[in-house]
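As noted in the main text, all predictions were made from sequence alone. Below is one such record, for Olfactory receptor family 56 subfamily A member 4.
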Amino acid sequence: MLSPRNYSTAPVSEFLLICFPNFQSWQHWLSLPLSLLFLLAMGANATLLITIWMEAALHQPMYYLLSLLSLLDIVLCLTVIPKVLAIFWFDLKPISFSACFLQMYIMNSFLTMESCTFMIMAYDRYVAICQPLRYPSIITDQFVVRAAMFIVSRNALVSLPVPILSARLSYCAGNVIKNCICTNLSVSKLSCEDITFNRLYQFVAGWTLLGSDLILTVLSYSFILKVVLRIKAEGAVAKALNTCGSHFILILFFSTVLLVLVITNLARKRIPPDVPILLNILHHLIPPALNPIVYGVRTKEIKQGIQKLLGKL
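Prediction:
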């Protein structure tokens, strides 16, 4: 077992990631389901991206947004899971100072980008169902470009202070991070300085971004539900509820896991520390594995595109 370098005055050049500090003897068994979920997430999102790219009929705004979601999922998976598996398989616990804070930045910014993408996709469905005649004039390629610029710029800029504030701290309480990934709280609590502002900024920024996205998403689906229930056409209500319902459940799952993570961190004295660590890892795996299936494969046009792609192989 690696021990912390307690209260060292030397500058920290690397951290040591200790996954599941209380259950290290069985963590290699966890690598099997994590590997399968990782392969599923990467394979499903890559297939979706290639299908949309190669199928001319899918070169539409709705599918461009879906491509953006898949790109975000792939980056999130690659940022977190390979390092976790390297720790499990090869005991590669060290992570450099710069790599740790880069991982922290990508996680914070891309998770909020994904939340914002959900919100834009919900708006896309709202216009398609509630204002179908205006859909071609509102949801255009230019709209997707502007939406993508908004998603990237807003979340990249607001998330930037999180790793900067943590990197400026003096780390004199050791370099052992009791986590599989470089989260802000796991890293900053190793500092001998006051981290109140770090905690406060992440809390306010995170809930402002994620909270506003969730509220707007819920409003969009509420308007959709109101319109759908008025539709008299046979089977139209069931089809719309089936499609939008699965989307909404997935978004709620994404948001609920984040809420559970916050609660478990606040109540960490009553909850085993390994629980939030596992939830954090799963949050970077389960949504990326489910998103392309719920949003993509269940869509008739994408299903046909995948079949054509497989037929060419």
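The chain has twelve helices and three strands. Residues 1-8 have pLDDT under 50 and may be disordered. These features were considered when defining construct boundaries for the mutagenesis experiments described in Section 2.9.
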